[in-house]
Amino acid sequence: MTSTYDARGRRVGATILQVIPNLVTQIKQVDGKDGYNAVQIGTGSKKSVGKPQLGHLKKAKIETPLRFMREIRVKEVDVEPGQEITLRQVFSKGDSVKVTGISKGRGFQGGVKRYNFRGGPKTHGQSDRHRAPGSIGQTTTPGRVYKGKHMAGHMGVAQVSLTGVEVIALDPAHNLLTLKGGIPGPMGGLVRIEKQGRIKGYTPPPEEKEDEEAEAKQAENRDVPADQAVETAATPEPLVTSGKSPESSEEAPAVEEQKIEEKTEGADQNAK
Question: Where does the pLDDT of residue 106 fall: very low under 50, low under 70, confident under 90, or very high at 90 and above?
């Protein structure tokens, strides 16, 4: 597991799964000999595959020897044999999925760890009853132990399903899917992911626009707030009615001063 941030900015635990593209190996339909709608998909690769499996894949025009093949019941069949199913075609950020896998093997465990038993008393001379399961039998009637009684035994290696798991991120380029929380099974194990819908109340983050980013950078360079920079850029420049550019209007006072000086000098010479 690892940690990441969800859509609300909260730091949560997450699991990264590598979803290799699946190939449709077989189609079953109600009208055919099977009598029900289902799609068989395969994934992974393996060096040595039996001839029956190779012949089965050859019918679907698949040359790659697949390692895993699983059947999924569907309402309507909308795929073809040999078609590739990728990560982007099925999932998106904010989806709610169901994950099914085989849990890790824990070996032989007692009742406290396997079924969360309370254990025996800790005092009054009970030195060896701290993790004891307690009584398991009945009275004379029925005179036996009921089937399914919680006792010590083998733990793990059982099918576990988690519903309502949130899809936090996708990386289609590397076929990576990030799910919120833990996932049943060991590292490298095979899991089944089914899309259920969308997470309730999920709001996707807004997409950043390049124009807004460019305007914000220009505003920072000018030391002007972004809202003022946008308004300034939106308003057109005032028209010059005199036909002169702003530069010529700035130089105009200097020209007038020169003309005044020239007139005064000419008046002095006439007076002389």
Answer: very high
Cα 67 to Cα 46: distance, rounded to the nearest angstrom: 5
Instruction: Report d(CA 42, CA 62) in Å as an integer.
Output: 10
Q: What residue ranges do the domains of the chain occupy? A: 2-105+156-198, 109-154, 209-233
The phi and psi torsions of 71 (rounded to 5 degrees) equal -105, 135
Q: What is the largest CA-CA distance in the chain?
A: 149
* Report field, pTM of the whole predicted structure over 0.90: no
Q: CA-to-CA distance for 25 and 63, rounded, in angstroms?
A: 11
- Kindly provide the residue ranges of all beta strands, DSSP E only, lying in the chain, ordered along the sequence: 2-5, 11-18, 22-28, 38-43, 68-73, 84-85, 95-102, 107-109, 153-155, 159-171, 176-180, 191-198
CATH code for the part of the protein at 2-105+156-198: 3.30.160.810
Higher pLDDT, 119 or 240: 119
Q: Which two tokens stand for residue 265?
A: 């000098």
Q: Which of 4, 17, 175 is nearest to 88 (CA)?
A: 175
Neighbours of 190 (CB within 10 A): 13
Average pLDDT, the chain: 82
Q: What is the 3-state secondary structure (H, E, C) of 200-233?
A: CCCCCCCCCCHHHHHHHHHHHHCCCCHHHHHHHH
The pLDDT tens digits for 9-23 are: 889 999 999 999 999
